[in-house]
From TrEMBL:
<keyword id="KW-0812">Transmembrane</keyword>
<dbReference type="GO" id="GO:0005886">
    <property type="term" value="C:plasma membrane"/>
</dbReference>
<keyword id="KW-0133">Cell shape</keyword>
<dbReference type="GO" id="GO:0051301">
    <property type="term" value="P:cell division"/>
</dbReference>
<dbReference type="Pfam" id="PF01098">
    <property type="entry name" value="FTSW_RODA_SPOVE"/>
</dbReference>
<dbReference type="GO" id="GO:0015648">
    <property type="term" value="F:lipid-linked peptidoglycan transporter activity"/>
</dbReference>
<dbReference type="GO" id="GO:0008360">
    <property type="term" value="P:regulation of cell shape"/>
</dbReference>
<keyword id="KW-1133">Transmembrane helix</keyword>
<protein>
    <recommendedName>
        <fullName>Cell cycle protein, FtsW/RodA/SpoVE family</fullName>
    </recommendedName>
</protein>
<keyword id="KW-0472">Membrane</keyword>
<dbReference type="InterPro" id="IPR047928">
    <property type="entry name" value="Perm_prefix_1"/>
</dbReference>
<dbReference type="InterPro" id="IPR001182">
    <property type="entry name" value="FtsW/RodA"/>
</dbReference>
<dbReference type="GO" id="GO:0032153">
    <property type="term" value="C:cell division site"/>
</dbReference>
Length: 463
């Protein structure tokens, strides 16, 4: 059989267009390389090509085996778990928060209309997640820098005077939009592979641009800013550990990254406002701290200390009657106050298992871009959830943006589901995305498969 006829028959069995083209190109390269080996051993060129084709085996059988693994995975398991957790979270919010209703509660009015809005926000988040699930995350390997620049410019423009409402001198209500920068930054780091010290310096500049955007344009929401910059710094250190930039002495830039992160943290600490410093004093020494500044922390600790393992407290003793913004900052404590620690602990354990499963899924990725982007998305979700738990126990300095599935808010809900969508996209396309590297023309290309009884390793080398 002629080579192109063979490849047509084989690739016709592969349903994914992206995999079909990639497999065809790599198999053609393998056949030509094998034929060249036969030519070098004294065989005629046409005979060598025919022999190389015959050696590949039946094209339909090979094509079916290739199609079996090189196609999108259905992430029904993760989608089902997220849908179930979304429903459970809404039910918990309704029973523990919104059924109370009324404007007599502490802080803003918490009415049933707010619950309906949260249902709409959840549906909006699920729609965003579904859209990203079907998108090819590997586009970040080509367009991450352009998307990152567009993101920074767009947010900076939105935060210009007169374009968006200013609350207490800041735009802290859009702080969670910085979640989006994390997967973009993972893609940006991937784009600089093999570029040496220049790539590392550019990665630092991008991190500086994100810090400028969060601290100088958005302002407010300092806790989210710290978390996002911390995760991005981890991604940069991971890229150095994997030697993406080809720097010989990787320990030096890694140490420099840690030092810069420490300097940034010190700068943030030195610029804490007076009330934040007083709240820090409450955390460190609640007995001698000013009660006015430590009121919320003191009440949260008092409520947490009275919680029963099973069963709730009297309604007037729950956070919703004593603390402001319960649906934002104390949803977990309110849940424990209504149901007891055991029920709240079960919810936390389920969420923890879900987050661990996301980390395991990311770790199993063979593509380095998927690993980097996925780790960033999972890390910010885990970090924010842990800080939210500490704050609800009265052990946190500043509130986290929220916890998945339990926190009220439009932007936070959509941002969390967007991260889920990116993680699901990584899972969906893990068998279609191969490591291509930053190749220049004529450079070596390598690819390996193990398909049933076929094991093919394809290498393309100069000459």
């Amino acid at each position: 059989m002629e080579m192109h006829e063979y490849l047509d028959a084989l690739s016709g069995q592969i349903r994914s267009g992206r995999a079909r083209q990639a497999v065809r190109e790599e198999l053609e390269a393998h056949i030509r390389d094998q034929a060249q080996t036969y030519v070098d051993s004294g065989m005629e060129e046409q005979e060598a090509l025919e022999q190389a084709v015959r050696q590949m085996g039946d094209p339909v059988e090979v094509g079916i085996d290739m199609d079996r693994i090189h196609r999108p995975r259905n992430g029904w398991k993760f989608l089902g778990v997220i849908a179930a957790l979304s429903a459970a979270g809404l039910l918990a919010q309704y029973i523990c928060i919104y059924r109370y209703g009324g404007s007599e509660l502490t802080g803003n009015s918490i009415t049933i209309q707010a619950f309906y809005r949260q249902c709409a926000y959840t549906l909006m988040g699920l729609a965003v997640m579904a859209g990203l699930y079907f998108c090819d995350y590997s586009l970040l390997s080509r367009y991450a820098k352009a998307a990152g620049a567009l993101f920074i410019a767009a947010v900076a423009i939105v935060c210009m005077p007169g374009l968006a409402p200013v609350v207490a001198g800041a735009h802290s209500y859009i702080k969670v939009i910085m979640y989006v920068f994390i997967p973009l930054y993972g893609g940006i780091l991937y784009c600089y592979r093999g570029s040496g010290i220049r790539g590392y310096v550019c990665a630092l500049l991008w991190l500086g641009a994100a810090a400028w955007l969060a601290l100088c344009r958005i302002r407010g929401g300092i806790s989210v800013t710290i978390d996002v910059l911390f995760v991005c710094s981890l991604l940069l250190i991971m890229s150095l550990y994997r030697n993406w930039y080809g720097i010989r002495y990787r320990a030096l830039p890694a140490a420099a990254t840690c030092a810069l992160a420490a300097c940034l943290g010190a700068g943030v600490a030195l610029n804490l406002s007076d009330y934040q410093l007083r709240r820090l004093e409450v955390i460190l020494n609640p007995q001698s701290a000013d009660r006015a500044y430590g009121y919320q922390t003191g009440v949260a600790r008092e409520i947490a200390g009275r919680l029963e393992l099973v069963g709730g407290q009297m309604p007037e003793r729950t956070p919703i009657h004593r603390l402001p913004g319960v649906q934002y900052d104390y949803a977990l404590l309110q849940t424990a106050s209504v149901w007891g620690w055991l029920a709240a602990g079960v919810l936390l354990a389920i969420l923890a298992l879900f987050l661990v499963s996301l980390f395991i899924m990311v770790k199993r990725q063979k593509n380095q871009l998927g690993q980097m982007v996925g780790f960033g998305c999972a890390a910010i979700l885990a970090l924010e959830s842990a800080r939210y738990l500490l704050y609800n126990l009265g052990l946190g300095l500043m509130p986290a943006a929220g916890i998945p599935f339990l926190t009220y808010g439009r932007l936070h809900t959509v941002a969390v589901y967007a991260l889920f969508g990116i993680l699901l996209s990584i899972y969906r396309y893990q068998d279609l995305i191969w490591e291509t590297g930053n190749r220049r023309k004529g450079s070596r290309r390598t690819m390996a498969w193990g398909v049933g009884k076929y094991r093919i390793r394809i290498e393309r080398a100069d000459g």
